């Protein structure tokens, strides 16, 4: 096992990663008071305490930085005889200037802006979310030059899955792999909403501590920092993966962290300020594209469900009775809802299409939901947690969407979804081919196992559109039935 023990793992969410008291040494940090006098620094060869920041970098930024929230780009400055890109931000009662190496020939010029335009258009032209993710992975690979670039989406419970990937070396693929929420702890996710680009330039770095006459500065808030020293737990994780450098960009939609662009490289690699800003801009464009796609998808999903419902219900009109209807349309009712199985129970009769629990268990489920599902759809993605005994068939029925049609003898319609873990296993255990050291606790293989634990007995969630659809199907069925009753009544008269 590594130098971390089990108690470190459970305290992941509590590690105060925003106050490491040190930076990564691919840049210099200067900390001044609000008047511009340096009171602390990190990774500077000269002792610069007491100097005026304006003298050190040839630029007085106190006014502009104090007045603004977040990062201010100061442009190119000279510090101790070398050229640097400078950014600055305010951290409580201090101003912080961060200097990183300028890359010659790189600038936010016209050609660059034109590139940005082309990138935007190429994202726009992709079809599905999958295509968009693939294309985005390729673009970020071009921008960063990192060897494995992934589009990572947070799923239910903050676990996540790789939706798109671009690799240009021998790195193993993580495409479609799932990872547990604990791989990116809560406070890190919160920080990444605020600070959208981070670079871990070399996992073997030695942290450069903040030097100051006052001990207060060892806990200066580095939430907005680029150079912030990284959590040792995460560094160990990257080493276990065989990664030498990591960069990630936040994909934020309406203030919520939707996912990350995760980039790995096989050797140390820094990103210039220009590249970091370009990445931030493209990540924002990607977020907008995802949002539009999500909205369109919801609309399309509603349309699809309605059209499909109408087709299915037409069978009911031409059929004699419910039994015949379920016989002819059961499969379609399952497909309609992206379910693995559909079942109906009416009195002693049971019908099933696709993958459902055994008849005896089906009866138990129907009985369990009969009353609540008469009031509103009974929806769960963790049936075994809601119903005693359901643990036994969680592989086929972790997800249940049920509605009761309240007639003299109630009819209970049930849609089932398999445990998500089974679904992933059917698609092939995604971590089968990834190399790992057997005695390592923080590695993708172990992560997959942790994710498996967390999704045990859990199916994919039912969408709002699907729940609505179940309600509508019952309503349509009742309408057809009432119309038929009326016709029969008229004939009798
Ligand atoms: C941070 N974990 C991260 C980050 C990523 C991941 C992308 C952001 C930092 C970076 O850019 O490297 C995880 N990286 C992944 C995942 C994939 C990937 C899932 O490429 C999949 C493709 N990590 C653990 C455990 C803990 C943990 C058990 O596995 C807790 C003890 C901690 N991860 C952890 C911490 C950070 C982190 C503390 C924040 C690092 C920082 O910003 O200082």
TrEMBL record:
<dbReference type="GO" id="GO:0006355">
    <property type="term" value="P:regulation of DNA-templated transcription"/>
</dbReference>
<dbReference type="GO" id="GO:0009881">
    <property type="term" value="F:photoreceptor activity"/>
</dbReference>
<dbReference type="GO" id="GO:0009584">
    <property type="term" value="P:detection of visible light"/>
</dbReference>
<feature type="domain" description="Phytochrome chromophore attachment site">
    <location>
        <begin position="128"/>
        <end position="284"/>
    </location>
</feature>
<protein>
    <submittedName>
        <fullName>GAF domain-containing protein</fullName>
    </submittedName>
</protein>
<keyword id="KW-0675">Receptor</keyword>
<keyword id="KW-0716">Sensory transduction</keyword>
<keyword id="KW-0600">Photoreceptor protein</keyword>
<comment type="similarity">
    <text>In the N-terminal section; belongs to the phytochrome family.</text>
</comment>
<keyword id="KW-0157">Chromophore</keyword>
């Amino acid at each position: 096992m590594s130098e971390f023990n089990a108690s470190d793992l459970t305290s992941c969410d509590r590690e105060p990663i925003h106050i490491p008291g040190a930076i990564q040494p691919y840049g210099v940090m200067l900390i001044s008071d609000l008047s511009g006098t340096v009171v602390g620094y990190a990774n500077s060869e000269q002792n610069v305490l007491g100097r005026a920041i304006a003298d050190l970098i040839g630029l007085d930024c106190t006014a502009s930085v104090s007045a603004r929230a977040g990062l201010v780009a100061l442009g190119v400055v000279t510090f101790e005889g070398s050229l640097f890109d400078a950014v600055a931000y305010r951290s409580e009662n201090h101003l912080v200037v961060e200097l990183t190496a300028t890359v010659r020939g790189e600038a936010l010029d016209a050609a660059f802006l034109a590139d940005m335009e082309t990138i935007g258009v190429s994202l726009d032209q992709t079809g599905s979310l999958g295509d968009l993710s693939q294309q985005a992975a390729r673009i970020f690979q071009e921008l960063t030059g990192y060897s494995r670039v992934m589009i990572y989406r947070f799923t239910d419970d903050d676990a996540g899955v790789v939706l798109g990937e671009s690799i240009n070396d021998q790195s193993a693929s993580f495409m479609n792999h799932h990872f547990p929420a604990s791989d990116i702890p809560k406070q890190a996710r919160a920080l990444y909403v605020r600070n959208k680009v981070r670079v871990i330039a070399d996992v073997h770095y030695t942290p450069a501590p903040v030097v100051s006459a006052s001990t207060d500065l060892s806990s200066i808030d580095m939430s907005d920092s680029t150079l912030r020293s990284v959590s040792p737990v995460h560094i160990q994780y990257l080493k276990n993966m065989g990664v030498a450098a990591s960069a990630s960009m936040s994909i934020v939609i309406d203030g919520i962290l939707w996912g990350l662009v995760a980039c790995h490289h096989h050797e140390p690699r820094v990103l210039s300020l220009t590249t970091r800003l370009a990445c931030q801009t493209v990540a924002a464009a990607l977020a907008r594209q995802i949002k539009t796609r999500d909205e369109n998808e919801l609309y399309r999903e509603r349309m699809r469900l309605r059209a499909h419902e109408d087709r299915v219900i037409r069978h009911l009109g031409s059929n004699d009775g419910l039994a015949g209807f379920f016989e002819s349309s059961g499969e379609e009712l399952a497909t309609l809802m992206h379910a693995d199985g559909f079942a109906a129970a009416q009195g002693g009769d049971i019908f099933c299409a696709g993958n459902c629990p055994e008849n005896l268990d089906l009866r138990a489920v129907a009985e369990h939901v009969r009353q609540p599902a008469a009031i509103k759809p009974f929806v769960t993605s963790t049936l075994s947690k809601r119903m005693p005994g359901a643990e036994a068939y969680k592989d086929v029925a972790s997800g249940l969407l049920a509605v009761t049609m309240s007639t003299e003898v109630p009819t209970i319609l049930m849609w089932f979804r398999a445990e998500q873990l089974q679904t992933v296993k059917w698609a092939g255990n995604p971590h089968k081919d990834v190399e790992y050291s057997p005695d390592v606790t923080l590695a993708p293989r172990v992560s997959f196992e942790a994710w498996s634990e967390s999704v045990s007995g859990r199916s994919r969630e039912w969408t709002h559109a699907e729940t609505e659809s179940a309600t509508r199907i019952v309503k349509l069925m009742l309408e057809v039935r009432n119309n038929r009753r009326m016709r029969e009544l008229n004939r009798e008269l």
